[in-house]
């Protein structure tokens, strides 16, 4: 890979300045939280390399999160954040754990912040980042006091919305990019795309899929092999089989696990019909299913029956390599792209 000239690197730094200032990192690139994958090793590797790592709390208990934050701090002195899922039953205890450790950035994922959560997070000075799935919600979140937004399109791995990254970026950036830093996510595999979103007004970007095969990632060798073999078209969205049971689609590599999810939906829909489950509980069961299935693939290496959550950028993952090399490649590609611009 050719080195970028200082002109390209300088232009990139200038475009990333706001994001860098907000995150306290060297590059305005976040490694999106990935349940089971984004634990101490990947998070510390990302932050140590100059990017910004995020611990995926997922279904962790407050005690486990407490230990994970402490262990991450032991591996890096650079800033990192914690991603919490809004529907976690112990959300407020998890926020307390973050406050206890003076975590500088908290990401709330999985829906709008519940009442009281914004104040609870910000009372100690932590910066709050939320996902904005539409312009109206972006504006509402900013009015509620959210400090930064992630705009994530359906090309992403894991739980997804219905709209593509390119459309969301065009819809949201012109209206809100001057109000709070906005990080674009979903389908980014190369630096040229990072340069393009920065030029559209993004303060930075968030990538997940591209970092899964970092050497420091604890994902099972089978999980990494599946990523390295896959192409974009293998990363498909799950299908909702019952109109009464709204399930958030999940993008993952096709495998036999897809049939297990269909069976799980049938089982939950039947319990719903029989009045044995309320809708909220039914949806929670679906989320528990995903957490278990992802663990089976990431930790146990069962890539047939577990969930291989991956974004469409998976085709651009071609080998296992140190996280610092992945980040450096992205930065060089972005800087090269910017050399072609006028300023
Ligand atoms: C294996 C996997 C697990 C994920 N788990 C979570 C999660 O627990 N919480 C979350 O907010 N996002 C999760 N995501 C989304 C990522 O944080 C990130 O936003 C996304 O991967 C960006 O899109 P990309 O995959 O196209 O780079 C996950 C993504 C993957 C690939």
Automatic annotation (TrEMBL):
Pfam families in the cross-refs: NMO
Top EC category: oxidoreductase
Entry keyword annotation includes Flavoprotein: yes
A single MF term (Gene Ontology): monooxygenase activity
E.C. code: 1.13.12.-
Keywords: Flavoprotein, FMN, Monooxygenase, Oxidoreductase
Entries under InterPro entries matching the protein: Aldolase_TIM, NMO
Protein name: Nitronate monooxygenase
Organism: Sphingomonas qilianensis
